[in-house]
Write a structure and sequence with these properties.
2 domains, Rossmann fold, alpha/beta, seven-stranded mixed β-sheet
Length: about 475
C-alpha cells in the first residue's frame, strides 16, 4: 500500500492523508482546511502519482472510495464540502458525536462564506467584483454542507467495521474533543496483514468532561500528531484551581471584568463545566457569566445528548446536579444585539466568546471595548497562530488595531494552558509508547510546527524507535 501526506505536513493545520491499497482502493483520512492560509482553504501544490490536481486537491476526488474522519475540528473536516463539490461520491465514516459536531462547524463555515460573498457583492469596485467571482468558485455554501452530511455514516467506538474484503477500520477514543478518535486500519494484501494507526489529535489525561485517550493495539505503522512534541504543559493545577485564582483576582478582589476568548466547540464546554463545578462543589460566589456564541450553544446541546461518552466525573456530576452547563447567574447571548448590550453591564462578570485566537467572531468586539480598561483581564486559554490578535496580545504589544481602530493595551493579559485539548510531550510519548520498538516499522510525524516535530523525532529516537520520519507535503511512501 502507499501513503501520501497531503496536509498538516511540517505545519499544524490542513490534515489530509491518502492511503492506497494494491488493488487501487483509495481511502482519504481527514480533509481539513489549511488555516495557515489566508482564506482557510487548501489548494493543491502538485499532483500525486497516479492522479491529477483539480481545484483544491492534488488528486481526482471521484477516484476516492472512502473518507475516514478523526474528529470535527475544521482543520480536519473543513474541506469535505469541497471534496463533494469536485466529484467525490462516497461515504464519510466517523463517530456519532463527530457527525453532529462536524455538521455544526461546517454550517457555521458556510454561513461565514456566504457573508463574505454578500459583502463583496455590495461593492461596485471591479477588483472586488473579480475577487467575489473567485470566492464563489472557492467557498462552499449551505447546499454543499447538506450534501456532505447526507453521506456521513456513524460508527461506534471500539467496533471493528469491515470496509471490504481486504480492509477493516476501528475508531478508538482519543480524548481531545467529544467523538474524537484514533483510526486503526487493518489491510490484507497478497496474503499479508498490515496495520496502520492515524492518531488524529491526541487528548490529555484528566481533561474536563472527556475520557482519557484509550490504548491502541500494536500496529506496523503510526501517523502521529506532534503539536506539543517539544514542550510540557506549564500549569500543573487542576482546571478549577487555575480558573478560581484568576476569577478571584479579577472579579472578586476588584470589581473587574474577565474576558475569555474560547473556541466554541470543546473548549467552551470545558470552561462552562468547570465554572459549574466551582459554584456547585467549591461554593464559589456567583458572578454573572455570559457565553457569547450561537455555535457554542448548539455544541453544548450535542454534549448534553452524549453524556454516556463523557468521563466518570462528569457523568457523576450530572447525576447529582442534573446539569453540566447550567448554573446560577449564567446566560447565553444568542443575538448580536444582546452581545453588544453587555457593554453596559457594569457589575463584575465573565464573558466567554469566540474565537479563541481573537480573530473574527464576537470576541473582537468585546476585546475592542475592554482592551483599554485596566480593570479588565483577558485570559488566553489556548494556542494562537502567529499574526492573530491573540498572538499579539500574548506577545505584549502596547497597542492593537481592531477593525481599523487603534487601541492602547491597558487590560491585564494572562494565559493558562489547563484547558488545552492537546496532549503534551509526555502524553505523546505515552501514546507512542504503547507500540513495541521492535514491531513498529515506521513512525510519521504530522500536525506540528517543524521545530516541535524535530524535537519529538529526537525524543522518539532516544527511546529506541528507529525510522521516525517527518514527511513534507506531497511525499508518498510505499508501506
Amino acid at each position: 500500500m502507499k501513503l501520501s501526506f497531503l496536509g498538516a505536513a511540517r505545519q499544524v493545520t490542513g490534515s489530509m492523508y491518502l492511503l492506497e491499497t494494491e488493488d487501487d482502493y483509495r481511502i482519504l483520512i481527514d480533509c481539513g482546511s489549511d488555516l495557515e492560509r489566508s482564506n482557510g482553504q487548501t489548494p493543491p501544490t502538485a499532483p500525486i502519482t497516479g492522479g491529477h490536481a483539480t481545484g483544491f486537491f492534488p488528486f481526482e476526488p471521484s477516484s476516492i472510495h472512502l473518507v475516514l474522519l478523526t474528529h470535527a475540528h475544521v482543520d480536519h473536516s473543513g474541506n469535505l464540502p469541497n471534496l463533494y463539490r469536485e466529484g467525490y461520491e462516497g461515504q464519510i465514516l466517523c463517530t456519532e458525536a463527530t457527525h453532529s459536531l462536524t455538521e455544526l462547524l461546517l454550517k457555521d463555515a458556510a454561513s461565514l462564506n456566504q457573508k463574505r460573498i454578500n459583502e463583496l457583492n455590495a461593492s461596485k469596485k471591479k477588483r472586488v467584483k473579480d475577487r467575489q467571482q473567485q470566492l464563489q468558485k472557492d467557498l462552499y455554501l449551505d447546499k454543499q454542507v447538506r450534501e456532505t452530511m447526507e453521506n456521513v455514516v456513524s460508527i461506534q467506538f471500539n467496533r471493528r467495521f469491515r470496509v471490504n474484503d481486504s480492509v477493516d477500520v476501528t475508531f478508538i477514543p482519543a480524548g481531545h474533543l467529544l467523538g474524537a478518535a484514533h483510526i486503526v486500519l487493518n489491510i490484507r494484501e497478497n496474503g499479508e496483514r498490515k496495520s496502520i494507526c492515524f492518531s488524529g489529535d491526541i487528548g490529555r489525561k484528566n481533561y474536563p468532561l472527556l475520557t482519557d485517550p484509550a490504548p491502541v493495539p500494536q500496529v506496523d505503522y503510526l501517523v502521529c500528531e506532534s503539536t506539543y512534541g517539544n514542550r510540557l504543559h506549564e500549569d500543573l493545577k487542576k482546571p478549577e484551581e487555575a480558573l478560581a485564582d484568576v476569577i478571584k483576582r479579577t472579579c472578586i478582589d476588584i470589581p473587574g471584568r474577565l474576558i475569555i476568548p474560547s473556541f466554541s466547540v470543546g473548549r467552551t464546554q470545558a470552561l462552562l463545566y468547570t465554572l459549574n463545578k466551582l459554584y456547585t462543589d467549591y461554593n464559589f460566589p456567583p458572578i454573572k457569566v455570559f457565553s457569547d456564541s450561537p455555535l457554542a450553544l448548539e455544541s453544548t446541546r450535542v454534549y448534553e445528548k452524549n453524556i454516556r461518552l463523557l468521563n466518570a466525573d462528569a457523568r457523576e456530576f450530572y447525576e447529582e446536579n442534573e446539569s453540566l452547563f447550567d448554573f446560577e447567574n449564567f446566560q447565553y447571548l444568542e443575538s448580536a444585539k444582546a452581545s453588544k448590550a453587555i457593554s453596559n453591564h457594569y457589575e463584575p462578570c465573565i464573558i466567554i466568546s469566540s474565537s479563541g485566537m481573537v480573530q473574527g467572531g464576537r470576541v473582537e468586539y468585546h476585546v475592542a471595548n475592554n482592551i483599554s480598561n485596566p480593570y479588565c483581564t483577558i485570559l488566553m486559554i489556548g494556542y494562537c497562530a502567529e499574526g492573530t490578535l491573540g498572538w499579539r496580545l500574548l506577545n505584549g504589544q502596547s497597542t492593537l488595531t481592531i477593525k481599523g481602530k487603534e487601541h492602547a493595551v491597558m487590560a491585564n493579559i494572562e494565559k493558562v494552558d489547563v484547558f488545552s485539548g492537546h496532549g503534551d510531550r509526555d502524553d505523546l510519548m505515552r501514546f507512542v509508547g504503547m507500540q513495541s520498538t521492535q514491531t513498529l516499522k515506521q513512525v510519521f510525524l504530522v500536525h506540528g510546527e517543524y521545530p516541535s516535530m524535530e524535537a519529538f523525532q529526537q525524543t522518539l529516537t532516544e527511546a529506541g524507535y528507529a525510522n521516525v520520519t517527518i514527511p513534507k507535503k506531497g511525499d508518498s511512501f510505499d508501506l
